[in-house]
Write a structure and sequence with these properties.
Elements lengths: L1 H17 L1 E8 L5 E2 L4 E6 L5 E6 L5 E5 L4 E9 L2 E5 L3 E3 L4 E9 L18 E4 L2 E5 L11 H6 L4 E3 L5 E3 L6 E4 L2 E2 L4 H9 L6 E7 L14 E6 L6 E12 L3 E13 L2 E8 L1
Parallel strand pairs: 1-9, 14-17
Antiparallel strand pairs: 1-2, 1-5, 3-4, 3-6, 6-7, 6-8, 10-11, 11-16, 12-13, 14-15, 16-17, 18-19, 19-20
């Protein structure tokens, strides 16, 4: 029985790795300088909607896993380099597709006047976590929080809407620094009823420190919502509709009560 399970795991792992798009990013054509920690975005060719998001490693390499068949193009952004917008390509969903070496050019602009605008990067690499700054970015185009997690690097949501991090199940989802003691189905419903536009950032912690709950050793995802100064009762109603090989819809109600330091919230699946 154990040998059968091991063979099955190898088969699933091999199948997952086959559904992959990967490549390398370099600065300028000499390819001597790899671009590390660049934002790499996989966009659907039909409507330029976001499909997957990741970042390059120290050697400039990147990969997207669990990609379905379709037509896509890649956009890459990095501070100090001109944005890269690739050509549309087709992917059959059953192979490892290598994009080859993608070249980014240095920005060279002559200006007579400089205006500096502070803006958070889409992604921040910190010693203990990876932070995705959702607010004001292309990531906010997701229709709900669960769809947003599907696009986050290292995060996988399977067909049963179970969430795993770097292949490990049993992670803990935090909302504004507080754990959510919900079953998988209830957690998925709550995330589907949370609009991506209400999220400030997502913190991905693959190796939690001792200050976190011991149950979160498989990883922690902390969803930080946008803060509001509105007091009293307030709320939002959201509906979503998806059309692909199958169609689906969701509706939810988000209620919030705030008074001084007290802040209560409730998600209701309609």
């Amino acid at each position: 029985m154990r040998q059968l399970l091991y063979i099955l795991l190898l088969f699933v792992s091999g199948f997952s790795s086959a559904q992959q798009i990967k490549g390398n990013i370099y600065e300028d054509s000499d390819k001597k300088q790899p671009v590390a920690f660049a934002n790499v975005i996989l966009l659907n060719a039909a409507d330029s909607s976001l499909n997957k998001f990741t970042y390059s490693d120290d050697n400039g390499a990147f990969h997207f896993d669990q990609i379905k068949a379709g037509n896509y193009y890649i956009k890459i952004t990095f501070v100090g380099l001109t944005d890269y917008n690739g050509q549309v390509f087709g992917y059959d969903g059953n192979e490892v597709l290598e994009t080859g070496d993608l070249i980014m050019s240095s920005q060279s602009v002559n200006i007579s006047e400089v205006t500096i605008t502070a803006q958070k990067p889409m992604m921040e690499i910190k010693p203990d976590k990876l932070v995705l700054n959702v607010a004001g970015s292309i990531l906010a185009s997701g229709d709900d929080a669960l769809s947003l997690l599907r696009k986050a690097p290292g995060v996988m949501v399977d067909n049963n809407e179970n969430i795993s991090l770097l292949g490990k199940s049993g992670l803990i989802i935090y909302i504004d620094g507080k754990p959510t003691p919900l079953r998988a189905a209830d957690l998925a419903n709550m995330l589907k009823n949370m609009s991506a536009n209400d999220i400030e950032s997502i913190e991905i912690i693959s190796n939690p420190s001792a200050k976190y709950d011991a149950q979160g050793t498989a990883g922690i995802i902390n969803i930080k919502r946008k803060k509001t100064n509105i007091t009293g009762f307030n709320g939002t109603v959201n509906t979503t509709f998806r059309q692909g090989q199958t169609r689906g819809s969701n509706a939810g109600l988000n209620m919030n009560y705030r008074h001084n330091k007290l802040n209560l919230f409730k998600f209701i699946h309609i």
